[in-house]
Amino acid sequence: MTNPIVSRNTTSASISGTFRFSVAPMMEWTDRHCRAFHRTLSRRAWLYTEMVTAPAIIHGDRQRLLGFSEPEHPVIVQLGGSDPKLLAEAARICVDFGYDEINLNVGCPSDRVKGGNFGACLMRDPALVAVCVAAMKTAVAIPITVKCRIGVDEQDIEEALDALADQVLSEGCDRLIVHARKAWLKGLSPKENREIPPLDYDRVRRLKARLSHVPIELNGGLATLDDALRESGPLDGVMLGRAAYQDPDLLLEVDARVHGDAAPHADAFAAVEAFEPYVAAHLQAGGRLHDITRHMLGLFGGRPGARTYRRTLATEALVPGAGLEVLRKAVAAIRRPQSSAEDARTGTDG
Q1: Which of 86, 106, 180, 311 has the fewest Cβ atoms within 10 Å of its own Cβ atom?
Q2: Taking the model in full, what pTM does it have?
Q3: Could you give the CA distance from residue 91 to residue 103 in angstroms, rounded to a whole number?
Q4: CATH number for 124
Q5: Feature table: binding site
């Protein structure tokens, strides 16, 4: 867990409720069980679905793709697509499911996404993105936001980001979430696109200076809550992805350090205990323990016994019929004084 070094200033947007801390949409990770777990750790964080394409929502298993539990609010669905009519229809379906907002993905650089003409490649066609935003704004009453990069490939980052922002805002986009890196659509994998293009937080701050009235949220390369709060400057929010997923302990600090509220639980142990009824309900409905505990592997990171905790969940939770006893056994590896003392002496765990 990070140290409480940096906190939001009491005169910041957080006091009026406009400043946000968000957990980024991440494919294969931010499913409904992940979000339920994260909500246990923070009442105030904004949570996102994995990206879901508009055609999948229209033609696929909607309950599987969009279903979520009431405590997850506030929760945002991220859509992928570039057909205004399909996005509008998908947006209406998302509203029927009860989502708080809809976000359009204009930042994912993967080949699969590019092949479908959505994601970061849409940075090259801001007019089309604006038409998509307009179609969704006409179809639904909830906010429509856009998550983008500062540019792609050889684009000039000043011109590209300004062009996209101006066009989508002219059609009613309610908020911009900017990953402060370019995306290179040829030659770099999605993982490399998260690491190799240099970060440029100042470019996002310049956008905010030009569009002071527009809510703008910073994303990209923020490894700790301290980093996020330090870099947020004049912005209206920060979004963490893998840092929050891989070190979920930091979410326990969000409510206090970002919003000045009490943490929902005293510590990670109390949070796991509070989460047990959700796990039990999933098991009773025929679900597997691993469906949930795969999202909990990063909890207790760096503490004596953490390696045993992770190993227990990663192996025993996969066994057919595994129940709450496996989760409790894993947590007990952190709690046992004799194990903690031994781990601290040998340095073989954690």
Answers
A1: 311
A2: 0.90
A3: 10
A4: 3.20.20.70
A5: 25-27, 78, 147, 179, 219-221, 241-242
